[in-house]
Amino acid sequence: MQSCINNLIEHGAHLFGEILEPEPVKALYRDMVAARAFDASLFMSEAEYLAQENHFNANPTPAFNFLNAFEDQLRFIEQDPRLQTPLQELLGEDYDIIIKKAVCGVPDAWLPGWVRERIRDVNVANLGPYIKKPFRDITYFRGIDFHQDIIDWPQGRVEQDPSTFLTLYVYLHEVGEHDSPLHLIPGSHRFGATLFPHRLEAVGHGRWRYTDDHGNQMQCEDQKLLGGPGYVGLWHNCTLHGTRPVTHESEQFRLSLRYLLGRSKNHRGTSAIDGVNRTLRGQLEPQVTRRDLNDKGIARIRGNIINSEK
């Protein structure tokens, strides 16, 4: 447990590895895949897309959520003491699951040509606005540029304190080099919340120069998370991370679980996340988190940093 806290302080992440029993993870994955047609039929026509007013409200919510049909099968993850114990130490015994959702990395072969053109060089290729509305209870993506999970939680959006939010990520199948694995940048949390798109410059293979909103710089390296069914990672909401798209070498789509966890609004006193946050410099409760969207939620800034590295 202490190693988890120490790793969050030092690296902004703790990688549990393949900690979960693989057989129930594989069974969950099989049942999820059987519950939906994961293919090109998920996408709207271009005419249906153009009839929309904006890109908002195209993601899962706690009520409209694919995972609600799998509550019983998820308990072995949510009640695993190897995960529960450090989370209770970090966030309190009454910590909240702010939201949990299935996340699907979409292969290029699924994309209609008109969608492919619209997301070309977009830094957050969230495909939700292009998906038929009944199927938007999953997050679909095609590569996500380096970002912090505080991006979705500016001041006033929720009753809980977003500075306490942590992300727990679970792989449901083998995720290799070509399957859109997560890339984390250990240590990047130390600058606190910075405005998206972030100021990152590639300086070598897997190495970056990260500049905060005040001109402070650090040299850092990204870490690729490769693993099999039951691989679990945990990271701070200011830790930079992202993915490259599923490549042509991979024939499978990536289906994973993402939990956003936070300290309960009713919690009294402090918990270990406060100690983690005291080691950081910079904003932890930002009023504004991004500058890349217009008033309809459509990207107005293009360019993908994670794909710029040679």
Give a description of the structure:
Helix content is 19%, strand content 24%. The protein has seven helices and 13 strands. The protein is α+β, with helices and mostly antiparallel strands and 310 residues long. It is globular and about 50 Å long. The longest helix has 13 residues, at 22-34. A hairpin with a 2-residue loop joins β7 and β8 (207-211). It has one domain: q2cbj1_9rhob like domain (Jelly Rolls, Sandwich). The protein has helices at residues 2-11, 22-34, 46-50, 71-78, 81-91, 113-118, 272-278, and strands at 13-18, 96-105, 124-126, 139-147, 166-171, 182-184, 199-204, 207-211, 217-221, 223-225, 231-236, 241-243, 254-262.
Keywords summarizing the entry:
310 residues, alpha+beta, Jelly Rolls, three-stranded antiparallel beta sheet, 24% strand, globular
Shape: globular
CATH level 3 topology? Jelly Rolls
- Low-confidence runs (pLDDT<50, min 5 residues)? none
End-to-end gap: 37 Å
What's the gist of this structure?
With 310 residues, this protein is of the alpha+beta class.
